Amino acid sequence: xxxxxxxxxxxxxxxxxxxxxxxxxxxxxxxxxxxxxxxxxxxxxxxxxxxxxxxxxxxxxxxxxxxxxxxxxxxxxxxxxxxxxxxxxxxxxxxxxxxxxxxxxxxxxxxxxxxxxxxxxxxxxxxxxxxxxxxxxxxxxxxxxxxxxxxx
Length: 152
What we know:
Layout (H helix, E strand, L loop, with lengths): L11 H22 L7 H6 L11 H8 L3 H13 L3 E6 L2 E9 L1 H25 L1 H14 L10
Antiparallel strand pairs: 1-2
Helix pairs in contact: 3-4, 5-6
């Protein structure tokens, strides 16, 4: 069985999924400690990690998250009520909306940046800065060199 193998001999996709689970758990714990305990994993996975900050169309967020436009609309409505995002009419297409960070969202984003910096410092201390940079390059290659685009 896969979960009985020593960590180093597990398939790389399994190790990546285990690391992802730890990373997302740590994100939610950190956000909770910073006063953003109302955020759920679905908020982070489907919206927060894909927001550019320059105004995003909900259809783009849905595509990147791999969910339906209806699902993203529900998540955006939750985040809007909680004060994390705001929606405005798209000046280039009045039939569409753009999603921007609201004040609480900007504060949560700053908390996430602090968390990511602390995490990378901790990892660099554990494996060395050179190994961490190598991991960054390898993971970017595995992800297909995309910063924000999800596979279709």
